[in-house]
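Entry 12.
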Amino acid sequence: MILVGEMRDRESWRSACRLRDRPPGLSTLHTMDAGQTVNRILGLFETNEERQIRMRLAATLRWIVLSAPLPKVEVAGWQPLEVMGMNSGSRRSS
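Predicted 3D structure (tokens):
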């Protein structure tokens, strides 16, 4: 398992994509929903690179899990709010 902190820049994403043949990896990115996550990643790159980045995401991305901290009155922890998994249809549409 490879854990990468928040991916905030283009070079972090390029490095992570090069690790796609390695063991599973995990990273964080602060966004409000799964769609915004993909758009934020694409926004790190130039417009002329978008097609290539979409193809790399389709080849490497497995899941996007949106979570939020539970309210203080609840038991401490995180609550999953949205889960988006890649499948053959989403890979073709990339």
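Annotation: The chain has four helices and four strands. The two ends are 26 Å apart (CA to CA).
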